[in-house]
Amino acid sequence: MAEDRKGFKIKDDKLGEVKIADEVVAIIAGLAATEVEGVSSMAGNITNELVSKLGMKNLSKGIRVEVAEGVVKVAVALNIAYGYAIPQVSSKVQERVKNAIENMTGLEVSGVNVRIASVDMGKSK
């Protein structure tokens, strides 16, 4: 499986090749994580926070993707809504992100690490 800095090849046959950008996998992971009840928002670095305040939505905010030989490892940073059990929400996020990436890309997900960055007091159970 050929890889480069911007993406990786998932298919190569007589019709041509199919490459997926790392950013696409990160967006899939971010969308899957925010669908879980109890996740208030994705956490990001200061640049991402400034971009979102300016009205530009970064769908891969708080996601780091590593791909090696067709195996994906994902790190997700999120903000949880007050009143939700962190272990249960984290477990659901891990499952949802893993399933979404595997179903949409055909790649194997070796791990989904979740980091709770903060508790959102404005959104509660």
Order of secondary-structure elements: EEHEHEEHE
Q: Write down the overall geometry.
A: elongated
Q: Average pLDDT across residues?
A: 82
**Which structural category do the helix and sheet elements fall into?**
alpha+beta
Roughly what percent helix?
25-40%
Number of helices: 3
Spans of at least 5 consecutive residues with low confidence: 46-56
Please explain how this structure is put together.
The protein has helices at 22-34, 46-53, 86-105, and strands spanning 7-13, 16-21, 39-42, 63-68, 71-82, 108-124. The protein is elongated, with a radius of gyration of 16 Å. The protein has 3 helices and 6 strands, in the order E-E-H-E-H-E-E-H-E. A hairpin with a 2-residue loop joins strand 1 (7-13) and strand 2 (16-21). Helix 1 (22-34) crosses helix 3.
Briefly, what is this?
By secondary structure, this protein is of the alpha+beta class. The longest helix is centred in the C-terminal third of the chain and has 20 residues.
Give descriptors for this structure.
single chain; 125 residues; alpha+beta; four-stranded mixed sheet; 33% helix
